[in-house]
Amino acid sequence: MARIIDIKADKRTALEAGCAALAEGLAIAIPTETVYGLAADATNPAAITRIYETKGRPRFNPLICHMADLAMAENYAEFDPISRALAEAFWPGPLTLVLPLKSGTAIHALATAGLDSVGIRTPKGFTGELIRAFGRPLAAPSANTSGKVSATSADHVEADLGGKIPLILDAGASAVGVESTIVKVENGELRLLRPGGLPAKDIERVAGKRLLRSKKAAAPIEAPGMLASHYAPGAAVRLDVTDLRPGEALIAFGPEKLPGAEHAAITLNLSPRGDLAEAAANLFDYMKKADASGAATIAFSPIPDEGLGEAINDRLRRAAAPRE
Ligand code: TXA
Ligand code: MG
From 75, 167, 179, 232, which residue has the greatest number of CB atoms within 10 Å? Predict the structure, then answer.
């Protein structure tokens, strides 16, 4: 059992306990607006190793380094003008920039998996304060067992990793609900490495450029979390359903009623009014609830591929991918 501290009830204790655990080299769960993170001191190799071990994550998969603000990030990475404009427009927020790592910084190679680039973002709210108080960047992947559905509440973290970590800092449900959008500027071009909580259109508006998408899944070293079979619940997943088969769990979207829905093991609607931001915020929680119903298959209604729908559909395709 992890100690859970409600930051709304006692922020000072949360900051003190968080800093103390991080200084000891422990990995702890932190709230962010996207999903909960499993955080450790990005300059401490033993601490970073704890993240990989706790998640069962392959070590060739680099971690995002979380910073208090752009000024802190500039100590660790080289910003080109487009990346800087994006950071100024969207930080703190659900955007990760992959940037050239400055040489000789304190970020340990275990955090970047030895790459000469680093993924950086500045989270909104309490965790920004925690990083400022701690004074060093925090390496933090999503706080879930590798390959499983990400956590958007302290309860999700406790259920998955509670037996393995000492502390969960609880700020309630993550407002965005899907991980950050990851982009990289390369040879003057802007590439989308992972769709996420910041819609591609918003990024294109500020950058004044189209976001290039990979035709196939990004190469493992570019964005390993992008590979197939990720975000997998225990149940099988069926997408874009137009009718429900008996005994399936239904995760619907929008006001329409699906033929066969009356036979669902459980019905959850990501957003009855068809709002994609609401759907993203509910996505992982509803996947876990549908899984807990015991149904052998979770069926999803079609979700439009625009705005946050791009990130939602990306996660659903990975949840539905064949498992190893
Ligand atoms: O919203 C988020 O991004 C959450 C919260 C906790 O901040 N974090 C998160 O981390 O989703 P994780 O580890 O589950 O996903 C990080 C992704 C991985 O796919 C990884 O390969 C990619 O970021 N990444 C990290 N550093 C990279 C780099 N230098 N180059 C390319 N991809 C990188
Ligand atoms: Mg993850």
Answer: 179
- Distance separating alpha carbons of residues 306 and 5, to the nearest angstrom: 37
pLDDT digits (tens, 9 = 90+) for 244-279: 999 999 999 999 999 999 999 999 999 999 999 999
DSSP 91-130: -SSSEEEEEEBPTT-SS-HHHHTT-SEEEEE---THHHHH
Computed over its alpha carbons, how large is the radius of gyration of the chain?
A: 19
Write the CB contacts of 115 (distance below 8 Å, at least 6 apart in sequence). 62, 101, 221
| Residue 238 DSSP class | E
pLDDT digits (tens, 9 = 90+) for 30-85: 999 999 999 999 999 999 999 999 999 888 889 999 999 999 999 999 999 999 99
For the chain, domains (ranges, CATH) are 3-213 (3.90.870.10), 236-320 (3.40.50.11030)
Phi, psi angles (nearest 5°) of residue 70: -60, -40
Query: pLDDT band for position 225 (50/70/90)?
Result: low
Cα 39 to ligand 1 centroid, rounded to whole Å: 12
Q: 256 alpha carbon to ligand 2 midpoint, in Å?
A: 31
Q: Which two tokens stand for residue 113?
A: 């998996």
Residues whose CB is under 5 A from ligand 2 (ion)?
Answer: 142
Reduce the DSSP state of residue 304 to 3 states and report it.
Answer: coil
User: Which residue ranges have their beta carbon within 6 Å of ligand 1?
Assistant: 32, 34-35, 37, 61-64, 96, 98, 112, 115, 117-119, 121, 140-142, 179-180, 182, 193-194, 222-226
The structure tokens listed for 287 are 């996947």
CA distance readout (Å), 32 to 52, 130, 141, 153, 244:
19, 11, 11, 10, 35
